[in-house]
């Protein structure tokens, strides 16, 4: 809201005053994995996002896959919840994102609404009809993304000026412009050779984005004019993805089934070339894609490249006794044991403790079930030591079995 008052002719310009709304804006992107499974929720059931901050206020989102209530059972619903105790006025918008990250279907509050205290929420019970959504191309690999844009209103302030100055809108086209520059090949001044592929780029862009490229291209150790650089230890497809990120600040889409391998390789490349944001993106993607097949290799990767969050996510996945046993049967676990012995030593007692907690919760049932079948337990532990498992791993599984039930531990001592 603004009001303008003009006086009579003033030498040198026009006097103006304005009453301006003080606002702070922010966004949160929520990725829904396993959409078809979420439909098993009943009407009015929701899944909440993690908390995030905008303008110093705590917020989170609720996703209702089968509608907010009986009247909206054929719709998908989204709501914004204020997690703090104070009152705040905010305007918000929910938007579906397409594969390129563009907002394609939006619902807007259009005006500020009041959030009074904790757990006060506003949103759209009829955000999008479920049938229309499922027939759209917004859903890919059983997942989709939605972004919530929030503008918090913090009152008004007065300001004055002697000259008219048009408001300069913020630009979001820089990464698109740089991407077009890379694609055009105009002004390139360096060749980057990766195996049998050659990529053309601009030294200044590479150096501005990566301290490693800065040293290689302009530092005291550069080779001659550095018009041609050999890149070793990296596949061309991985380097191409990293180069696209350097210019556009976006990670390109990857073919289905290759997401984990690309995220792992890109994380290594990002760490090598000091691309901190790309490294964080890869770490985040890997945290949500840990499986029994990839847990061990991902844990090694996290340890070698200082990804503490990813390491914690792997340990959390392995907290299940069944998950640990399945992972120990993979080639990745052999790689973990040989390449990171210290990590293997750290993993063992941690998982024994986890199994112990699980055993204490279920120990009564385990004890009753096993008390009458002592020979079967002994035979199972005998097989652990005989069917090709190294003695060390036999001890690990035996320890886990002992932790899972007190009676197991007593028999192992016999």
Q: Can you walk through the features of this model?
A:
The protein is an alpha+beta fold. It has 3 domains: 16-159, Apoptosis, Tumor Necrosis Factor Receptor Associated Protein 2, Chain A (Sandwich); 174-281, 2-Layer Sandwich (Potassium Channel Kv1.1, Chain A); 290-414, no CATH class. The protein is built from 16 helices and 13 strands. The termini are far apart. Residues 188-255 form the BTB domain. Belongs to the Tdpoz family. Residues 349-371 are annotated as: Disordered. It comes from Setaria viridis (Green bristlegrass).
What is the strand content?
A: 15-25%
Tell me the count of domains: 3
Number of strands: 13
Straight-line distance between termini: 82 Å
Quaternary organization: single chain
InterPro entries: BACK_BPM_SPOP, BPM1-6, BTB/POZ_dom, MATH/TRAF_dom, SKP1/BTB/POZ_sf, TRAF-like
Domain BTB: 188-255
Pfam family, one: MATH_2
Domain MATH: 25-150
What is the element layout, followed by pairings?
Elements: E1 16-33, H1 35-38, E2 47-48, E3 52-54, E4 57-64, E5 75-82, E6 87-97, E7 103-108, E8 113-116, E9 120-129, H2 130-134, E10 143-161, H3 174-184, E11 190-194, E12 197-201, H4 203-209, H5 211-218, E13 228-231, H6 236-248, H7 259-272, H8 276-287, H9 295-304, H10 308-317, H11 321-327, H12 331-339, H13 341-371, H14 374-386, H15 391-404, H16 406-412
Helix pairs in contact: 4-5, 6-7, 7-8, 8-10, 9-10, 9-12, 12-13, 13-15, 15-16
């Amino acid at each position: 809201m603004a009001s303008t008052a003009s006086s009579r002719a003033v030498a040198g310009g026009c006097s103006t005053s304005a009453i301006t709304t003080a606002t702070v804006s922010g966004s949160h992107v929520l990725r829904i994995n396993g959409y078809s499974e979420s439909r098993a929720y009943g009407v009015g059931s929701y899944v909440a996002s993690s908390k995030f901050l905008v303008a110093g206020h705590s917020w989170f989102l609720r996703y209702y896959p089968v509608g907010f209530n009986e009247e909206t059972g054929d719709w998908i619903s989204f709501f914004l919840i204020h997690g703090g105790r104070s009152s705040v006025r905010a305007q918000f918008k929910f938007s579906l994102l397409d594969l390129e990250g563009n907002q394609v279907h939006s619902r807007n509050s259009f005006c500020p609404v009041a959030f009074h205290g904790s757990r006060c929420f506003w949103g759209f019970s009829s955000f999008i009809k479920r049938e229309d959504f499922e027939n759209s191309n917004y859903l890919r690999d059983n997942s989709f993304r939605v972004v919530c844009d929030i503008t918090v209103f913090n009152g008004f302030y007065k300001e004055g000026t002697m000259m008219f100055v048009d408001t300069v809108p913020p630009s979001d086209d820089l990464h698109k412009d740089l991407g077009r520059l890379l694609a055009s090949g105009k002004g390139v001044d360096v060749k980057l050779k990766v195996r049998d592929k050659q990529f053309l780029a601009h030294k200044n862009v590479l150096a501005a984005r990566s301290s490693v490229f800065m040293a290689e291209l302009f530092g005291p150790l550069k080779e001659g004019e550095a018009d041609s650089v050999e890149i070793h230890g990296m596949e061309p497809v991985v380097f191409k993805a990293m180069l696209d990120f350097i210019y556009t600040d976006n990670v390109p889409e990857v073919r289905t089934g290759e997401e984990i391998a690309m995220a792992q390789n890109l994380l290594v490349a990002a760490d090598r070339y000091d691309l901190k944001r790309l490294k964080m993106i890869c770490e985040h993607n890997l945290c949500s894609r840990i499986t029994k097949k990839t847990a061990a290799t991902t844990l090694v990767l996290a340890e070698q490249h200082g990804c503490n969050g990813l390491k914690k996510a792997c340990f959390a996945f392995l907290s299940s006794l069944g998950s640990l046993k399945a992972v120990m049967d993979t080639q990745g676990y052999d790689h973990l044991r040989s390449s990171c012995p210290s990590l293997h030593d750290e993993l063992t007692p941690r998982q024994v403790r986890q199994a112990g907690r699980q055993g204490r919760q279920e120990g009564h049932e385990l004890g009753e079930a096993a008390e009458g079948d002592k020979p079967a337990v002994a035979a199972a532990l005998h097989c652990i030591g005989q069917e090709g498992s190294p003695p060390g791993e036999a001890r690990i599984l035996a320890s886990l079995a002992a932790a899972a039930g007190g009676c197991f531990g007593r028999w192992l001592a016999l």
